[in-house]
């Protein structure tokens, strides 16, 4: 089950889209898949982390990554 913070990158027409799961509108669109992935990673890091799903041109899931919170206040060694 996807969480509200999870994101998906997929091709729509001639653009690559970065969209939050469960949201009706896209967060950003890009000329390349890598730009969309970078945008989604940054959004996830800044919003507490989550799951990033990347789809290939054929809309099949190519990759899934867990993105950690980019603002971890703890400083624990080990």
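Q: What amino acid sequence fits the structure above?
A:
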């Amino acid at each position: 089950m996807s969480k509200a913070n999870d994101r998906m990158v997929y091709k729509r027409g001639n653009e690559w889209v970065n969209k939050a799961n469960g949201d009706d509108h896209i967060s950003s669109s890009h000329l390349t898949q890598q730009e969309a992935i970078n945008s989604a990673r940054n959004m996830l890091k800044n919003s507490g982390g989550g799951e990033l799903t990347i789809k290939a041109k054929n809309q099949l899931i190519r990759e899934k990554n867990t993105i950690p919170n980019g603002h971890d206040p703890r400083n624990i060694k080990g």
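Q: And what stands out in the fold?
A: The helical segments are 33-46.
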